[in-house]
Amino acid sequence: MSNYVLGTYWEHMVRCHGNRPIAMTTNHMFPICSLCNISVPPTRLSVLAGSNPGHNTPSAQVSVGSRQHRLTMELPLPDELIGSIVDHLDVPSLLRCMQVCKLFYSIISESAHLIYKIELFASHMEDNEYSSMETVNRLNLLREYNRKWNDLEWTSSGSIPMTNGCWELSGGILAQVIHRNTLSLVQLPCKLKDIPERRWSVPFDFRICDFTLDNSQDLVVLLELVGTFPPNVSCNIHLRTLSGEQHPRAAETQITYTSTSLHATLSFMIQICGNRVAVLFYDQLFFELDTLSTNPFLVWNWQTGQQELVICSHSRDYILRLHDRGSDLATIIRSDSGPALQILRASAQVDPILPLEETPCVCELQLPRVQGDVEWLLVRSEPTPTWKPPTGSGVPFYASRKDYIFSVSIRAIVDEMDGNAVLFIPLSTLLLEVERSHDVPRRNVPWDAWGPDRTRIISMQPSETWICYTYGMKFIQHVPWNNGYAAQVYDFNPYAARKHVKTTVDSLLPWKHLAEESKPAGWCEGFCSSEQEQVVTRLPGRVATIALAHSNNSQDAAMIGEDNIVIVQVAYLKL
């Protein structure tokens, strides 16, 4: 058996079968796994993976005809080559490989590159391939970064004056509109990642109605309404860089949208995802009056200017989240059977203008019912699925995009009480349901079949100040605390929830386990399952509370980014 074949043979053993006994066959020079539905030649090799972890080398049992021989098989490969082979494994397989024998354990545990790969996975981070930092230094920095998050220890703090204009926190940049036509931006610092604080302003020659940004693409999308009274109102969607120049990858300086339904009091939700920009136009006034106004949701390719999709919904329908996995689109629907989360197929259509009910639907996930009147539903998740650190930033690692939480905020009136709750749904939960729906058109999934074990619902303090309360697997809210206020941080990274929590009374860690299961109390008791039973959710996580000595204003709110926690007050912003 050649060295290469031997390497791929052990790789297959660990990747596909973990520590289970594996029957391998040899066909000429190549081993074939009998569990993979391949014909078995007369000569058979049975490998017991991890059967004797005390040995320095893997053990094997060879059977030829009726005779059996026990032998120890030395791997004729240098340690460096074995390390290169196992580097192709994912982290769970790599961890199982460490249990096969002392040799594999030693090779992996002594490799800074492989340990860095494992700790990135556990930290829910991704490596920045463009960073010039040495692997050992990245590993040490990652450990220090995690320690400071686990201890909630800050390296710096500061204050930023705020106005009553539009705000946005994205990619570590806090931006706000001042004087109606100027964008004021602050790059929030992070000493560990060597990100300095930077402040600058960009004036424009039009009034900014709303905006969003993606610093990984050096892109700012700004909305301008032209005209006052319908039907003579249009919306200009300006595509600029963070320095205010025309974006070099945009074919046009702006995209213009015209509709007879546009008017000066519209509100907007904007999202950038790769080469797409999506805008939801909705009428807050008509929404509050519970009318059936039409809310158009449009998707453009901002680089070509081509309009790819228009979905028309009513004031009780909410288009929520665009992402790049198979061109799917998430939306929440108010329906007769109660709130539901729909996953729509949103690829470009031949006729792009569709009513919501005719948009191809992958599946519909029922949400808990509310024994009352739902006022609104809103979904947040950050960062966008295509976000990466800007080229040249040099940061060694950043939040993983492989999984993150959607926070579904629900405001309702139950027994004449107005309250808020938030439901946390990991992306992995949604993708699992999408995978299960490929062969079932418009699959409808009851709440009890998908939600209780893979989501978590909590009561939420109402806030009109800001909605950037989710980033990656973390969530933050501003809560009353000991005659003052505190920031309460939730973390749904499963590894951190198991390892880095307070386990004894005298532990100094600020994090605590979430209860194994939560049954919403108080206002949230108005939620019930499809069987009219109280909602119970069990998504694992941890929570920490940060007392805010300066905070005594109930109008405060909290925001969270990858490297920062931000407290918003009426007159200024506290870092």
TrEMBL record:
<dbReference type="Pfam" id="PF12937">
    <property type="entry name" value="F-box-like"/>
</dbReference>
<protein>
    <recommendedName>
        <fullName>F-box domain-containing protein</fullName>
    </recommendedName>
</protein>
<dbReference type="InterPro" id="IPR001810">
    <property type="entry name" value="F-box_dom"/>
</dbReference>
<feature type="domain" description="F-box">
    <location>
        <begin position="71"/>
        <end position="118"/>
    </location>
</feature>
<dbReference type="InterPro" id="IPR036047">
    <property type="entry name" value="F-box-like_dom_sf"/>
</dbReference>
